[in-house]
Every structure is written in C-alpha cells, then in structure tokens.
Amino acid sequence: MTGMSVEPYREITFDKDGDGPAGQSAALAALARQGVTDLVLLAHGWNSSPSGATRLCSDFFAPFPGLFGPGVEAGYAGVIWPSMMFTDEPVPDYRALVTVLPEKEPVLGRLAELLALAPPHEAAFAEFGALLRELADVPGGAAGATGLAGSVPEFLVADPVAVCALFTEALGDDPGGDPGDGPDGEFGEFGEGLKRYWKGAREALRQATYYVMKRRAGRVGESGLGPLLGEVARTAPGLRVHLVGHSMGARLVAYALRGLPEGARPVASVTLLQGAFSHYAFTARLPHDPRRSGALRDLQRRVRGPVVACYSRHDTALGVMYPLASRLAGDSASLTALPGTGDPRWGAIGHDGVQGVPGTAARTVADVPREGVPGSGCVNVDTAEVVRSHSDICRPELARVVVSAARAGRP
C-alpha cells in the first residue's frame, strides 16, 4: 500500500454489524504462503474515517521493522471499522457522528439544533431524551418503561431534565438547586432556570454515543474478527496472529476471542493499549459480586501467549470519563447520586490494568526490554512513563511491548 510504513500490509474492513467483503481471510492466509510467520493486527479506536485509521496503522507500525529478530518474518494488518473518538472532549464532533452513524443523520441534526438553541423548556428536554433513545436504538418511547432500565443505561430511560441536571452538576456547573429552580420561581419567568442544564445535555449525548460504540466494538470483534481468524487458522494453521487494539479497538480484539470457533487457537498474543473496557473483564468472580464473572471470563486461556494490558494514569478519558459511562450503563441507582470515579467497579483496563485475575504479572514499560513478559496469562504494563494521554500510542516503547509479547508465546 502506497505510503504505508511497513510491508506486507493488508487491511481488513467490517461494517457496524461485523460483516466484511468476501476474501479477507484468504488474503491474510496468503501471507503465510509468502513466508510470513507472524501477523501483527491492529484495531484502531479513535478514528472516524478509514484514511485516519490507515494513518494510525502506518504511524504505529513504523518502529517494528528490525525488532523481531532472526527467524521471524512479520506481516501487518489493520482492522478498519466504523468508530468514533472517545476523547477528553465533553461532546463528540457532529461531523464525526454523522460519519459513523449515517443512518441517524436526521436524529443527529435535530440533536445539534437543540444543543445550539438550548431552549429553556421541559418539552425540549423531553424531545432531546426521545432523540437520544432513537440514536441508541432503545425500544419504546417512554422514559422508565417497564423492563428497559435493566437492559439499557438508566440515563436513557430516566427523566431527561433530571439526567441533564445531574450531568451539569457532575461537570461542576450547577449551583446546587433543584432542576428548574430559576430566579423567578419554579422554572423562572420563562423557564430560564432550565437553560443551564443544556451543558449536561451535551454530556448525555456523549454518553449515548459511547454506549452505541461500546456495543458496536464488541459486535464487530465477536461476529466479525473472531470468525475471520478462525478461518485463517483453518487455512493457514502455522500463522501466528498477534492482536493489538487501542481504546475501543482493544475491546474489539478482546471480544474477538469470544468469537473464535471452538478449538481454534490462532492468537499467539494480545496487547491492549489504553483499553476502553472493564478491568474486570477477564475475572472469574467479580470482587463486589462473587456470583458474577467478567464478560470475557478466562478467555485469556484461548491465547497461546500472554494478554498484555498497557495502562497509564495520565489517561483522563479512561480515568474520569470511562467510569462515568460505565457506572451509568451498569447501575440503576446511578441517577440518585453524582457519578464518581473512586468506585473500582467502574474502572477501565487502560487506566489500571487487569484486575481480579490471580497471578497477573506486573511490569513497567522500562522493564519490558530487559525482563520481557511471561509466556502466558495476563500481564499489566505501566506505560505512564511514555503514554501521557489516551491517544499517545505511536511510541517505539509500545512497539517493543508488542514484540516482547509476541516472542514470549513462541514455542
């Protein structure tokens, strides 16, 4: 591919449901016949355009040539899927939203109008709440409908004024009054007391789009990438696949393990970079509820080598916004108090690594070149020394972590 930093390089594309063009698994299997022994496959998480994702792959892969050493012929691939940014910004860019949710353009257009106008009326907030539910494909139209709260985030089915007031307060922009308390009575002379809650409405939109992308990443991994890798294992059984994912892309590659056909073990290592999913995903027992397990319980055992989680305390997107999103998605009581970030139930794997899995090893990014990583199981690598923000992944130090994980699982 012209302009790509490495060769051979292939791109694998999926739509929002995990479907992709015919022949993609054959293209990867063909690399093995050309002499490739190890395939490093990167799933992006930030980019809202295919060209941006390709640039990320090129930048990330640039340090790799020469790192593997003798006996390894490396090939590279990018997983391109319709995603959008999960950034530190309080509201996603409208154009990025339309790019990844084109079927929702009329809904997004009206949401943008409401946010721009900020009408101080309860009816406008009611419309905003209904539009958020339509955006997220939440069935039913009435907030609080029976059975909905258990399957979708509470903020999508609760009273929209209360939701936006809560988010406004969480963002530190509420003087502490009740929703609607204005200077001239219950709702102000013309309802102006409600106007300030449109700041919280922006965060509600951000959380709704996060919920959509979270579902999509898991679906693409489990229904798209997992079965594709199973086909690669069938036709090129000697090819060692090393999965790498950033942000929501880390969720995608992790869920690909759940989508592998029974008995297929093509994945030789997994490296999760600032992963935007639960740090308890791989645990057999949740510390706060031992009757339940993580969504990816014990799936690290489907990997022939290690599952490496790179994390950084400097990642505010995962340290602050991810716990907020996770708590609102998983706790029906979350709307009775401000969503805090101190509760470990809602932590991200990209903020403090794998939690709740006995025997998880620990390294720093400086340790890895000297000590390597264990040949199997979960490994946490503290990358705070080099990773200063959520998107700060195009680093030679992280390339060395991926290569170390790839080496660790070799027979």
Automatic annotation (TrEMBL):
<protein>
    <recommendedName>
        <fullName>Serine-threonine protein kinase</fullName>
    </recommendedName>
</protein>
<dbReference type="InterPro" id="IPR029058">
    <property type="entry name" value="AB_hydrolase_fold"/>
</dbReference>
